[in-house]
């Protein structure tokens, strides 16, 4: 029994000595061992001088601006309809996304642009710069006559190469204007007309549109607000801001059934859903 007790005391003493040695053992740098320090998040990226930070911001905003100019000049732009010449296909206050892809490329906020490879089809809606008034906002009309077509207007209808053109999108009778008819459309030109035939200043009055002046075609109506036409004219930014604010406070002023219509072979009508 005495031997067993002595053995037990020795084990207890050994365990106590191990714990004491662990407490007294030097660690890390004291023991001459290499240690690996985990850098803090602040130490990962050194603080840059103010000048370098400003340069980084300038470069980043430069690329953002360049991307905006590229999209605006070659891919698409926003347009708003200020007049009723295209009713009921397009209403005053319709906000459009215009596609320039394949039609035109230009420098935003300037009159410099160049036409591309795509050409509009008959009865397609196009957006173009008016040749007779290049400083005015872009026009929106429908292509009626293609290059080489002979266009005539009589008996309340449009005639192409002696055949009556079927049109289910117009308002009112088609009547001739000041331009002499019948008229053969020149090469690289298009005869355009508004859908609201009694209230459209179009090729019947000032002739065909050169292909170089056509810059795109509408793709989608993304907003439509019931407001007077003069609100959407250039130089009425204050009135336009008040109109947007009023539409935000009074959602009934938004023509909800016209929103997010994509243009194809048809267009939303004024009195019903798209």
Task: Explain what the structure shows.
The chain has 274 residues and is of the alpha+beta class. It has a domain at 76-262: Ribbon (Umud Fragment, subunit A), CATH 2.10.109. Helices cover 25% and strands 22% of the residues. The protein contains five helices and 14 strands. It has helices spanning 2-24, 41-44, 50-74, 203-206, 237-249, and strands at 76-80, 94-99, 104-106, 113-115, 125-128, 139-145, 150-154, 157-160, 163-164, 183-184, 189-193, 209-210, 214-224, 261-262. The strands form three sheets. Strands 1, 2, 5, 6, 11, 12, 13 and 14 form an eight-stranded antiparallel β-sheet that branches. Strand 3 and strand 4 (113-115) form a beta hairpin. The termini are far apart. Residues 1-9, 31-36 and 265-274 have low confidence and may be disordered.
Characteristics of this structure?
Umud Fragment, subunit A, globular, disordered C terminus
């Amino acid at each position: 029994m005495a031997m067993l007790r002595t053995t037990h005391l020795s084990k207890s003493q050994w365990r106590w000595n191990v714990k004491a040695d662990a407490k007294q053992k030097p660690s890390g740098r004291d023991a001459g061992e290499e240690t690996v320090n985990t850098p803090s998040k602040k130490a990962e990226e050194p603080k840059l001088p103010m000048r370098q930070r400003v340069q980084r911001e300038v470069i980043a905003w430069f690329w953002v601006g360049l991307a905006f100019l590229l999209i605006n000049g070659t891919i698409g732009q926003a347009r708003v309809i200020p007049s009723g010449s295209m009713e009921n296909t397009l209403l005053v206050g319709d906000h459009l996304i215009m596609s320039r892809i394949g039609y035109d490329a230009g420098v935003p906020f300037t009159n410099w642009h160049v036409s591309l490879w795509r050409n509009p089809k008959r009865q397609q809606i196009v957006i173009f710069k008016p040749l007779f008034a290049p400083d005015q906002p872009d026009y929106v009309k429908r292509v009626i006559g293609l290059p080489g077509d002979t266009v005539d207007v009589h008996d309340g209808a449009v005639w192409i190469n002696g055949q009556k053109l079927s049109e289910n999108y117009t308002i009112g009778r088609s009547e001739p204007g000041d331009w002499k008819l019948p008229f053969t459309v020149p090469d690289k030109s298009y005869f355009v007309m508004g859908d609201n035939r009694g209230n459209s200043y179009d090729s019947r009055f000032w002739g065909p549109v050169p292909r170089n002046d056509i810059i795109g075609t509408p793709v989608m109506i993304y907003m439509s607000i019931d407001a007077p036409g003069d609100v959407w004219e250039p130089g009425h930014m204050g009135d336009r801001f008040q109109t947007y604010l009023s539409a935000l406070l009074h959602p009934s002023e938004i023509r909800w059934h016209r929103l997010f219509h994509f243009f194809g072979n048809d267009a939303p009508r004024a009195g019903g859903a798209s």
